[in-house]
Write a structure and sequence with these properties.
The complex is a heterotrimer of chains A (336), B (203) and C (488). Chain A is mostly helical. Helices cover 68% and strands 0% of the residues of chain A. Chain A folds into two domains: 1-70; 77-330, no CATH class. The chains are: A mainly alpha (336), B mainly alpha (203), C mainly alpha (488). Chains in contact: A-B, B-C.
Chain lengths: 336, 203, 488
């Protein structure tokens, strides 16, 4: 009995505790990301944002959560019930499981697997199913259109995202996220990958269906797109999933391009600040980029979105793969 | 124990979802079960220690191929029940052929003898120490021993892509598409003319 | 790590063709369909250059690229045949492709180039994996070419039929390969060969049934590509539906590559299973001859008729393979050379004919051709006589070598069957001549388009067909050197 506890029970308990901590933190940050979004948008539009619930409106996300939880959930009578309910769960779940491989600081990671970056890419590429299933199962024209739009949009941008990741991997020579961050100690790599950072930043906007690529939702044309039939808890799951995905993508950008927990430009004088602080700051910076874009740009037209993905990003990132590999070969700096 | 349990879990779900793929009435459900199947196959790969292949399977098949599948199935709205109507008619014939093939397979496997030289023929596993990851081991083989096959596969994909384009792309008359370069090249002087209007006169 | 840069020079023709294909795709994408003629000519010169590269190479046998590919005299000879056939196909298509509505796509010659590359890989492969890759590269290009005339329903039908059945054949190939691998533990030709020998001389003194099953599946896939009966079902529909220049290409080249692959498979990996495969090829050969002779009798469409005719021709060629003697194989090579010349000439004539700007496909349209176009009527008549195997034309000698080899190797039944079916087949070849010379002119006269390349092909083929009797030795010497490259 004791043996069973030491071989299975205790590690399991530790693991569950770790998972609990990570999920708790992610959900906390998700809640306050919504608050930050409203405050940032408010500031950019010369308004106050939320300010009545709690000091400075800090309790607003909690109030919203309670509201969504206590509302009645409506399932349309013609909807495919199972798929309809499965969709938000899938979205939410995928947004959370990806955190298993994100290293916040050296060794601060739940599962330090060999192919961490592939795991992240796989999870993010599966995010499309939540949307497409919701769009189909709602049995509504608006939702269906939203689902189709998101499917083609996410698949299109994944292609160039994949090539961007290939560029990074060429420089690093490993699929392990910790090693990817460690390889960024010399800053030349970040400079060479700068164009890819731009491509990646735009692609993650499309991948998370955020403005200016929020065509699957498109309030003004599709009145909410794939989410149009969802209410209460199911809607909340989509909502949380979307914001969790935003944080995830920002963390991914940080790991791939911004040097993760390393101090900026690897300046030793800044190394006294703990790694996870740097990681958090960088991620928050990318998140601010999300909000900034949302406040600045109008929504893209659909054909423009597709043109950007296939005719600009895809050739450009392909070219850059060639450039990067060429530079690495000629300077003999290919990772062994 | 955990390994065995996970194997049976993945394998059972894989088999069940495969059966559901062909037996589900709704084609969209079929595709969703197919995705579940892919996912469990990837799980089995992880158990084998082939994590690279597992994740490539998820990225390529679940993340891209099956999405397009689902896309097409949802868009086409094919009534598969009517397509299947004729199938019952051919069921006896199919069952007979299947039965004969099964019988043949059983007899063949019953009398399976390996060539005596088989041990020399089987390609030796390349030494995968703990230091060599999956992806690296795969890369070492693909880009050296099997480079011809790999490059040919690339050419085959090129032909497939060219074929898809050449067979479906056609210029449709009356479609107005955005010409970005033209828009950028346009100057104010192309479209506007500034005229001095003295007060009290018309143009 | 057996990758060696030096071995790249040995596959120079293939590398050259692949890079030319890739470059031409880029050119075509930028220049559009108006570049079709120039791309066609460039691919023509690419094929010619590849022939010279093959000729310049060392023909002593050597395996390269981790034994995936083999270079030897046998492969080089067949490569030259395939490349020459590709050149003829480009010439055949030039005029037709440009004048036909919806066919003038710049991808046409590029797809042919890549198909040709696939065939070269098939010929030089020394491993079932490379065989499959070459086979797929070639077939995928052919499927697209068959369906290229998207405005024509028949062409789309041809593409779909070819694709579905071809995919089935590929599946069979892989299924068979898995069995062969299961018994021998290798997909490399020499290793399979020695393992099969060991299996055959093992305790049971016989090959296990499962191995034979696998071998049969592999052979089925190849025989499907040759379009020999009973795997010929796709041929008439595809030949009829595909644009005529594509049909000409199908009839000319892929069969040659598939025969080369078949010969290599039978004589290297499956050499020890000769008793088993002789029965299979015997049946396929006999069935093809019979189907080719009898099914063609009722055809009214020239392309369909030529489809059955090609099935029959493949049946005769397979006789030479059944014998498993070097003399038989030499006869096969000679037969193929003659077949290629005859087919190129026949299709060149057919491709020239238009009736009210529509390509002629019906035999009835040929009625009375001799009264207003005697030269072309005689040209076609000579080619038909040669196809029927009437002395002293080249087609007769092709059959003569085959039958002689069969009788020498004691395959009398097959030889007799061949002679009988030739007699039956002569009927439909002669029917075309009868229609051209003795029927009344139909309502509209056929117009022959002016195309230098088609004319050159017609006259070249006529000179060969008529002059073969005077100088058969180059072809025979070529056949001998090709086969000695395989059997030593």
């Amino acid at each position: 009995m004791m043996e069973l506890w030491t071989t299975y029970g205790w590690p399991l308990a530790v693991m569950l505790a770790q998972i609990g901590v990570i999920l708790g933190l992610v959900l906390f940050f998700v809640a306050y990301l919504t608050y930050a979004e409203r405050k940032v948008l408010g500031a950019m539009q010369r308004r106050q944002g939320p300010m009545t619930v709690g000091p400075l409106g800090l309790l607003q996300p909690i109030a919203d959560g309670v509201k969504l939880l206590s509302k009645e959930m409506i399932i349309p009578s013609q909807a495919h019930r199972v798929v309809f309910l499965l969709a938000p769960m899938l979205t939410f779940m995928l947004a959370l499981i990806a955190w298993a491989v994100i290293p916040v600081s050296p060794g601060w990671v739940l599962a330090d697997i060999n192919v961490g970056i592939l795991y992240l890419f796989a999870v993010s590429s599966m995010g499309v199913y939540g949307v497409i299933m919701a769009g189909w199962a709602s049995n509504s024209r608006y939702a269906f259109l939203g689902g189709l739009r998101s499917a083609s949009q996410m698949v299109s941008y994944e292609v160039s995202m994949g090539l961007v990741i290939v560029c990074v991997l060429l420089c690093v020579g490993s699929l392990n996220l910790t090693e990817i961050v460690e390889a960024q100690r010399p800053a030349w790599m970040q400079i060479m990958l700068l164009p890819m950072l731009v491509v990646f930043l735009v692609s993650i906007l499309a991948e998370t269906n955020r403005s200016p690529f929020d065509l699957p939702e498109g309030e003004s044309e599709l009145s909410g797109g794939f989410m149009v039939e969802y209410s209460a808890m199911a809607f909340a799951l989509f909502f949380l999933g979307e914001y969790a995905n935003m944080i995830l993508m920002s963390a991914m950008t940080t790991l791939l391009f911004l040097g993760g927990w390393l101090p900026p430009f690897n300046i030793e004088a800044l190394a006294f600040v703990p790694g996870f602080i740097w990681f958090g700051l960088k991620t928050a910076g990318v998140l601010f980029f999300y909000l900034w874009t949302r406040a600045t740009f109008p929504r893209y037209r659909y054909d423009q979105l597709m043109r950007l993905g296939w005719k600009v990003f895809l050739p450009f990132s392909l070219l850059w793969v060639l450039v990067v590999s060429g530079v690495l070969v000629f300077t003999d700096t290919l990772p062994q | 124990m955990i390994l065995a349990l996970s194997f049976y879990l993945f394998a059972a779900v894989l088999v069940v979802s495969s059966v559901m793929v062909i037996s589900a009435r709704n084609p969209v459900h079929s595709v969703l079960f197919l995705i579940l199947g892919f996912f469990n196959a990837a799980g089995l790969m992880v158990l084998l220690g082939a994590e690279f292949i597992a994740f490539i399977l998820v990225i390529v098949y679940v993340g891209a191929v099956a999405v397009l599948f689902l896309f097409v199935v949802m868009m086409l709205d094919v009534d598969f029940t009517s397509l299947r109507k004729g199938a019952m008619q051919y069921l006896p014939l199919g069952a007979v052929i299947g039965g004969v093939l099964l019988f043949e397979l059983i007899t063949i496997f019953g009398a399976w003898t390996f060539a005596p030289t088989i041990q020399d023929n089987i390609v030796n596993e390349i030494a995968i120490g703990d230091s060599v990851t999956n992806a690296e081991a795969l890369g070492r083989l693909i880009y050296t021993d099997y480079i011809v096959a790999f490059q040919l596969a690339g050419l085959i994909l090129l032909v497939a892509m060219m074929g898809a384009i050449v067979l479906t792309l056609r210029k449709r008359a009356g479609v107005r598409s955005q010409k970005v370069a033209e828009q950028f090249a346009r100057k104010p002087s192309d479209a506007m003319e500034i005229k001095k209007v003295t007060s009290g006169t018309a143009l | 790590m057996s990758f060696d840069i030096a071995s790249l020079t040995l596959i120079l023709p293939e590398l050259f063709m692949a890079s030319a294909g890739l470059l031409l795709v880029v050119f075509g994408a930028f220049l559009g369909n108006k570049s079709l003629a120039s791309i066609s000519w460039v691919s023509f010169w690419v094929f010619l250059a590849a022939i010279f590269m093959v000729l310049a190479a060392d023909w002593s046998p050597v395996t390269i690229m981790n034994d995936m590919l083999i270079l030897d005299g046998f492969g080089a000879g067949f490569k030259i045949m395939v490349l020459a056939g590709m050149m003829a196909s480009v010439l055949l298509s030039l005029n037709f492709v440009i004048t036909q509505d919806g066919l003038g796509r710049f991808e046409y010659p590029i797809l042919m180039l890549l198909a040709g590359l696939g065939m070269l890989i098939m010929i030089m492969s020394n491993n079932l994996l490379t065989v499959y890759m070459g086979l797929e590269l070639q077939s995928l290009s052919l499927y697209v070419l068959a369906a290229l005339q998207t405005k024509s329903l028949k062409s789309s039908e041809a593409g779909i039929k070819y694709f579905v059945l071809g995919a089935l054949a590929s599946g069979m190939f892989l299924f068979g390969t898995s069995f062969v691998y299961g018994y021998t533990g290798s997909i490399e030709f020499q290793a399979i060969g020695s393992s099969v020998t060991a299996l055959a001389s093992g305790e049971a003194q016989a090959l296990p049934a499962g191995f034979i099953l696998g071998m049969v599946f592999v052979l089925i896939a190849i025989v499907f590509k040759i379009s020999a009966a009973p795997f010929h079902m796709w041929t008439p529909d595809v030949y009829q539906g595909a644009p005529t220049s594509v049909t000409a290409f199908f009839a000319l080249v892929p069969k040659v590559a598939a025969i080369a692959l078949l010969i290599r498979l039978l004589h290297v990996p499956f050499a020890a299973a000769v008793d088993e495969w002789q029965q299979i090829i015997w049946f396929v050969s006999a069935a093809s001859m019979i189907v080719g002779a009898f099914a063609a009798l009722v055809q009214d469409n020239i392309k369909r008729l030529l489809a059955y005719s090609s099935i029959g021709h493949m049946g005769y060629a397979l006789i030479g393979i059944v014998l498993a003697t070097s003399y038989g194989l030499e006869a096969v090579v000679a037969y193929l050379v003659i077949y290629m010349f005859m087919t190129a000439g026949t299709f060149a004539v057919i491709l020239m004919m238009r009736k009210e700007d529509v390509p002629v496909t019906s035999i009835r349209d040929l009625a009375g051709l001799s009264s207003y176009q005697p030269a072309m009527a005689y040209a076609l008549a000579i080619l038909m006589f040669s196809m029927a195997g009437i002395p002293p034309l080249a087609g007769f000698f092709g059959k003569l070598y085959i039958f002689k080899a069969a009788i020498e190797a004691d395959f009398v039944i097959l030889a007799v069957l061949g002679v009988l079916t030739s007699v039956v087949a002569a009927y439909y070849y002669l029917r075309i001549i009868k229609v051209m010379f003795f029927d009344e002119v139909a309502n509209e006269e056929i117009v022959f388009v002016k195309s230098k390349s088609l004319r050159v092909l017609t006259w070249g083929s006529l000179v060969f067909v008529v002059g073969f009797i005077l100088m058969p030795s180059p072809v025979l010497d070529f056949a001998q050197s090709v086969i000695s490259g395989l059997l030593g």
